[in-house]
Amino acid sequence: MIAPELLRQARIESVAHSLREDIGDGDITAMLIPADKTARGRVITRENARLAGVEWVNEVFRQVDPGVELEWLFSDGDDVPADAVLFRMQGPARSLLTAERSALNWLQTLSAVATQCAGYAARVAHTKVRLLDTRKTLPGLRLAQKYAVTCGDCDNHRIGLWDAFLIKENHIAACGSIARAVAEAHRIAPGKPVEVETENMDEFTQALDAGADIIMLDEFSLEDMVEAVKLTAGRARLEASGGINEQTLVPIAETGVDYISIGALTKDVKAIDLSMRLE
């Protein structure tokens, strides 16, 4: 779970950056419109979507012109049908047009992540598995995308390199063994989750005996996953990873693992088609 204040600060900073790169030293096209002209408008979605990014849109308009008024007809996490009006706006015409692209960029991107996640989550809703994102996010948009993941009924893995251990092959080699790496992790940061990536049943057994909190089963066969679930018997949580796609997702979920991590939740998304119309 991302701390609300951390998310709010990241939102303010990332929105400001998006406006700087779009507006530069001024929107010269908007200057064609009289400064005192006001307008109303609405944003619609051209396709079915799971909504995410309301506060990013609000922040865009707040930074461009606090006098713009927005009326949202849906909330983050809502499923919206094609051609639905997402929100209405009114205010200075210049401000509405200057903010348009940045606002829609945020909304179409974050809603794309939420929509992708909702689709994956629906496929495994009959199991107990939880789907996790990864650190494969767009540079600079880590927290925004991870927030959108939660709007799509999936969960966050670690936020970065600071909040949980993920001990991989090179870490193990440098430490000397899985047992030594796990022991050192518990010593360095007691209480922080310790996960070990394993590639075969022997490494899995070592991680289990070493007291890892979470064991990643990297590209294990379905048979080995089932065996790992039996051997674990609740002593650790198991995460399947690698080779996850629409064909393999459900069979893996049905093995009884606790988590499945999927990089595609954040890195392979297609923006939702949105449109803004002034009245």
Number of strands: 12
Q: Compute the number of helices.
A: 10
Strand line-up of the largest beta sheet: 6-11-10-9-8-7
Shape: elongated
From the N-terminal CA to the C-terminal CA, the straight-line distance is 40 Å
Low-confidence segments: none
Cα radius of gyration in angstroms = 22 Å
Oligomeric form: single chain
Largest sheet: 6 strands, parallel
Structure classification: alpha/beta
Q: How would you spell out the order of helices and strands?
A: HEEHEEEHEHEHHEHEHEHEHE
**Helix share, percent:** 40-55%
Mean pLDDT: 97
Q: Beta-strand percentage?
A: 15-25%
Task: Describe the overall structure.
- The chain contains 10 helices and 12 strands.
- The protein has helices at residues 4-23, 54-64, 93-123, 142-151, 169-175, 178-188, 201-210, 222-232, 249-253, 264-267, and strands at residues 38-45, 49-50, 69-72, 79-80, 85-92, 130-132, 165-167, 194-198, 214-218, 237-241, 259-261, 274-278.
- Helix 1 (4-23) crosses helix 2 and helix 6 (178-188) runs parallel beside helix 7.
- It starts with a helix and ends with a strand.
- The model has no long low-confidence stretch (mean pLDDT 97).
In short, what is this structure?
The chain is α/β, with parallel strands linked by helices and about 280 residues long. It has helices spanning about 5-25, 55-65, 95-125, 140-150, 170-175, 180-190, 200-210, 220-230, 250-255, 265; strands at about 40-45, 50, 70, 80, 85-90, 130, 165, 195-200, 215-220, 235-240, 260, 275-279.
